[in-house]
Amino acid sequence: MVEYLVNSCGFSPSEAAKFSKPLAHLRSTEKPDAVINFMRSQGFDGAGIRKVISGDPRYLCCNVEKNLTPKFRFLRDLGLSESDIADAILKNDVILRLDVHRSLVPKLEMWESILGSRELVLKHLKKTRWFFFSSVEKTLHPNLKFLRDECGIPEERVSVVLRSYPQLISQKPESLRALVARANELGMPRQSRMFVRTLNALHNVSQERFEAKVELMRSFGWSESEFSSVVRKVPTFSCMSLDMMRRKMKFFINVVGYTPSFIASQPTILLYSLQKRVIPRFRVTEMLKSKGLWTGQGKFTCILTFSDTKFMEKFVLPHKENVPELLDILRVAGTWKGNDTLHLASEDEEGLS
Questions:
Q1: Which residues are bridge partners to 113 per DSSP?
Q2: Tens digits of per-residue pLDDT, 184-226?
């Protein structure tokens, strides 16, 4: 089997030795040959086949007609193309283990009722890892019931968040309860529309990582209550990397001149891209001030909220002939493409973790 996995699938000898163990009982390559040939006929390349087998080598023991063909037919009947099916299985190889009628259909119906459309279900199926992994009876139903009955959160509100982040209810029920406890510690009211978004943000940040971020912001002068207040207002702040938090705080304090408390009162400014929005806009306004072309009466926090078009019209285009340096600032930041439009990032895309 080691030799077979090397020659037929392209595994390295060490990988083949590892993945061959569950296949030691095979006395011929008839079934593995059939599985590999079937996968190739369905559009899987060598890398895709290796990924599926490494997920569970026992797939090579499947009966193609009884075990695999019905799953591919089910996905085709949903309207997925050959490449879509490959994407869905590479993200959710558990599909190959599940019975179509006893498991796949109930999961499809459950997610369709939660997300509101089959299109969204298929979108996540192709893009979200382990989307079909969680049990309807043991995980999805209990989590929805917990959020609705014990937390008092309307299903419509949960559905809005799940359309983007279905993994929130795909976790173990005890893990979801732990997240709710963490949100309670932050003082986030359960009736708040931000409660479910806070749960999702905390889902992406371990308790240890969260505490490290509390300590970092304490070193800048924030109290623990200020940190909690910021997370309640903008939950995604807690997902920002430590390095990006540090860089943004240093810029706003040391360069812009804001106090830590002021930043805590205006937390949305921490979500903007430092390199693509905050720094270039600050340099543009400082350049205009130095040349006496702007009084500086407008608050920089408001300037950060301007749309790209409004910022160009108000601060750049009227002065581009007399102060060509403005376009140089934007060009260096990579936010000006040689015409009169800006391409700025409104959300932080420089290091979430």
A1: none
A2: 999 999 989 899 999 999 999 999 999 999 999 999 999 999 9
Q: What confidence tens digit (pLDDT) does each residue in 104-162 have? A: 999 999 999 989 899 999 999 998 888 888 999 999 999 999 999 999 998 888 888 88
**Other C-beta atoms lying within 10 Å of the C-beta of residue 231:** 26
Contact 170, 107 (CB under 8 A): no
pLDDT in the model for residue 347: 44
Question: What is the rounded distance in angstroms from the CA atom of residue 295 to the CA atom of residue 149?
Answer: 55
Counting residues of the chain whose pLDDT is more than 70, the rounded percentage is 93
SS3 of residue 85 by DSSP = helix
pLDDT at 183 over 60: yes
- Indicate the burial class of 89 (C-beta count within 10 angstroms; 0-12, 13-18, 19 or more): buried
Contact by Cβ (8 Å): 140, 169: yes
Domain boundaries, the chain: 1-62, 272-353
- Whats the size of the chain, residue-wise? 353
Q: Helix, strand, coil proportions of the chain in percent (round to 5)?
A: 70, 0, 30
CA distance between the termini of the chain:
40
Please list, in sequence order, all residues whose beta carbon lies within 8 angstroms of the beta carbon of residue 294, skipping any fewer than 6 positions away.
285, 288, 315
Helix (H/G/I), strand (E/B), else coil: 135: coil
Q: What is the pLDDT of residues 37-50, one digit of tens each?
A: 999 999 999 999 99
Q: How many CB atoms lie within 10 A of CB 326?
A: 24
Distance CA 29, CA 348 (A): 51
Q: Which two tokens stand for residue 37?
A: 């040939």
Scan for tokens 């593995």, then name that residue.
32
pLDDT in the model for residue 349 = 46
- Going by the DSSP 8-state scheme, the letter that residue 213 receives in this structure is H
- Phi/psi at 240 (5° precision): -70, 145
Q: What's 58's DSSP letter?
A: G
Could you please report the per-residue DSSP string of 1-22? -HHHHHHHH---HHHHHHHHGG
